[in-house]
């Protein structure tokens, strides 16, 4: 493994032997920023181990608006639901920046040969379901500013870089995408960001945020 995975992602759970076997079962592939890896509703059963770059998983409502379900980075396993149940893809996965990964066509065969990984995958899927439940609760319990603060805290903890005066996050999301991730309109997200700026919690620029008060942002997120 010649990359640094995000903490808690799928590949961090595997032994070196299991990683070697996974690489041997697949082949490397690259995508440009904006490329689509999976399309909601498609019938395919391969999985992708992300080795560099970040992607978003999203779905569209009946009226055509995009709902961002998650942002994933290096070490993440994508497409495992369809590989297991053989049903159509439940989400579209799009590259937020240039990405690389390992495509595994026969993932069930890999799981059969590596039984411990199947148990780990169950834990991973359970964690995703819990995260989905938590977000549904947020949508009903938090105002837009609270939901935006929650997502910024998540991004800062996962992708933040310490700088003078705070934590810098190079946002992979546009304001429209951030709106889709918080279940709000673009206008409401802009207002929420302005409110967080006015309170001195953050500073914003083009596709970047500097968190000046992480504890304050966490409090606003609850």
- How would you sum up the major sheet? 4 strands, antiparallel
What percentage of amino acids are in beta strands? 25-35%
> N-to-C terminal Cα separation, in Å?
37 Å
CATH A-level architecture of the largest domain? Sandwich
The global form is: globular
Characterise the protein shown here.
The chain is of the alpha+beta class. 42% of the residues lie in helices and 25% in strands. A four-stranded antiparallel sheet has the order 1-8-3-6. It has a four-stranded antiparallel sheet with strand order 2-7-4-5. Strands 9-10-12-11 form a four-stranded antiparallel sheet. Strand 11 and strand 12 form a beta hairpin. Helix 5 crosses helix 7. The N and C termini lie far apart (37 Å).
Keywords:
transcription, DNA-binding, cNMP-bd_dom_sf, four-stranded antiparallel sheet, 222 residues, Jelly Rolls, Arc Repressor Mutant, subunit A, 42% helix, cNMP-bd_dom, 2 domains, 12 strands, alpha+beta
């Amino acid at each position: 493994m010649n990359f640094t995975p995000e903490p808690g992602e799928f590949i961090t759970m595997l032994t070196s032997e299991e990683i070697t076997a996974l690489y041997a079962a697949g082949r490397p592939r690259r995508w440009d920023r904006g490329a689509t890896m999976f399309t909601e509703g498609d019938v395919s059963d391969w999985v992708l181990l992300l080795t560099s770059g970040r992607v978003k998983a999203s779905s569209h409502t009946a009226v055509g608006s995009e709902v961002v379900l998650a942002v994933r980075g290096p070490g993440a396993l994508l497409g495992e639901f369809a590989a297991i149940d053989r049903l159509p893809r439940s989400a579209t996965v799009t590259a937020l920046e240039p990405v690389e990964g390992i495509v595994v066509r026969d993932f069930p065969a890999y799981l059969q040969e590596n039984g411990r990984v199947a148990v780990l995958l169950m834990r991973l899927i359970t964690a995703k379901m819990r995260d989905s439940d938590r977000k549904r609760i947020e949508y009903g319990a938090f105002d837009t500013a609270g939901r935006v603060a929650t997502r910024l805290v998540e991004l800062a903890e996962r992708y933040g870089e310490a700088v003078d005066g705070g934590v810098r996050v190079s946002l992979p999301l546009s304001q429209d995408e951030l709106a889709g991730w918080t279940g709000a309109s673009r206008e409401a997200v802009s207002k929420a960001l302005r409110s967080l700026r006015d309170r001195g919690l953050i500073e914003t620029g083009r596709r970047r945020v500097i968190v000046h008060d992480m504890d304050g942002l966490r409090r606003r997120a609850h």
